[in-house]
Specification:
3 helices, elongated, alpha+beta, three-stranded antiparallel beta sheet, two-stranded antiparallel sheet
Length: about 140
């Protein structure tokens, strides 16, 4: 475990401590003095771009968690959008969320109403039908 570039014989603790101090120095050089700018959410800079890449219709610079190597695999404008957790058992329960909203109209309050819950990691219970519905409110067929 020795650093052969020094005269001293280092212990594991010496090397870990030196690595920590070097990392802090690099972060201070990159981010400045320790403070709010050190929060991970500012560093990761998540964006949710509009599906057609229309400027102004997405959400930029979202303060959130995750990284490209984490379960919440987000980084910049890339990563999975749909989040889903399913509890298997006699009664299947599912929870999910996608960043967006129930409306495709940018003027609607429901256009991006799910972005904030998505950003904070909130999930909503999903409804599973136990049987095929007998009737529908409307039916749309493409021919």
């Amino acid at each position: 475990i020795d650093d052969i570039d020094t005269d001293k014989v280092e212990t594991r603790s010496d090397i870990v401590t030196a690595s920590f101090h070097e990392t802090v120095a690099e972060l201070e050089n990159y981010l400045g003095e320790f403070g709010d700018k050190w929060k991970w959410g500012y560093f990761i800079d998540n964006d949710i771009d509009h599906l057609a890449s229309i400027p102004g219709l997405g959400r930029q610079n979202l303060f959130s968690s995750g990284s490209s190597e984490a379960i919440n695999a987000t980084r910049g404008g890339f990563g999975p959008s749909w989040r889903m957790v399913v509890e298997l058992g006699p009664e299947v329960k599912g929870y999910g969320l996608y960043p967006g909203g129930a409306s495709g109209n940018p003027g609607s309050p429901n256009y991006d109403s799910m972005v904030e819950p998505w950003r904070t990691g909130q999930l909503f219970e999903l409804n599973f039908m136990k049987e095929e519905p007998k009737e529908y409110l409307y039916k749309l067929e493409f021919r």
